[in-house]
Amino acid sequence: MVLTFGVYVGTSTVTGLLEAGLSTVVELKKLDSEFLVAGEDRICESISWELRNVSSCDWFCWWTLLISDKTPSTSMSLNGSSPLLLKNSDSVLFGFASLSTDKFETFETFDTFEKSAAMSIIGALACQKDSYLRSLATKVVSCNQQGNRYQVELEDTVLFPEGGGQPSDTGRILVGEQSLDVESVIRSGLKALHIVDKPLELGTTVNLNVNWEKRFDHMQQHTGQHLLSAILDKRDLPTLGWNMGEMINYVELPRKLTDSEKVEVANEVNSKITANLPITVEVPPDREVDSVKGVMRIIHIGDLDANACCGTHLKSAGQIKGIVLLNQVSGKGSNSRLNFIAGDRIFRYTESSHEILRSLSSSTSVQAEQLVDKVNALVVSSKKLQSRESALLKELATRTAEELKQTLSEGKTVVFHRPDVGLDFLNQMFKELKDSPGTVVLLSGEGKDGGAAIVFGENTTEVSAKLKELLTGLKGGGKGKFQGKVASYGKGELEKVKQQWT
Ligand SMILES: [Zn+2]
Fold it and tell me: Is 0.85 topped by the overall pTM?
């Protein structure tokens, strides 16, 4: 029986090992009598190990043991939750547990055993072994403050950290009467760190609950993507990337699908859902531990597809419920993004889309089927009206300017205000009046909505300075021509301006 074990080891332990020299550790191979493997009826025949520095501060120790078992009937208990302790004649170096066990055991003090962080790692977290597990009793291993938040490491977790295109879970940590929201779970090397707003004491036993509604939705989208990508793969359309959105997801493909291809793919995907293909997770016995991805896992959808993935998946295709292919959007180069939604989101999307249609139908007084024609006609009509309005306003501005011109003379300042026009109107007036004598103040808008202001002519600097005093919401500048924006007109301010230059 070959058992493979892994354990995170702290930098201090590694330093101690290295100081002792690698040969000291290699000699452990000879110390069979010193191995205690869940009782004394089993002998470790050989051991090989590898120490990897997976990041600048994290070390991972990976062990493979060949175990001979004198009592085969109980040999499988090794594969259970029994802790395995390894010690040499001086002190226990490591405590660690099988990655294939259902739960990790913490180690009791054993002689001079120094407690090491025997942790579940990415790829072998409780939520990855059983994606339907909603709660877990576990212990706090570390808690570090980062700004006004705390990063809590637990012995194991039912909260999936971000990865494989799947966003992080949220949930709650319960400690006695206290309840802490887990805002997100992030990865640090092969560890999962729970982000909370209060500190937790090391060694505390906590109950961890996942936000199941959100997680199940993620599982539907994620497993849906596996199935969709598997069907697209068969058509030589490899998935180059994918994204899970708040409502709409996409797979990035090397090209756009034709309309008929899209229909065929949708039919095929949904027929596999109806066929309720089983979805299983395989952890190969000779599994590798990737320094970034952790324990490698293969996700099988019946005989249709096998893909390495760290995410949480449904156990059967039927639970995806359905997949709807939406529009396609151009991606990088000739790539195309195929939008889709899966699972119960389809119901929510249908309900909200129906509400939008119903509301538009009501405000335009046509049936939903006629909405496209109606809205297109409204857009054309609105463009025509805008163009006519702008021509008429231009004409009105020119005429208004001509009237104002009659009142202008050297040394005089004239104020013009119209509430229902914009800056375009004022600028048209400026064009007509810029060479006239005197100084002109043009204002638009009214009340809290504010408006625009232009000042030009002989005394632009003095008049605009005074105008700024009178209109507290006015900001702007410019030499020769002052142009500004009035955030809002205070009570009585417009009247004061008019009185100033009558
Ligand atoms: Zn996956």
Answer: no
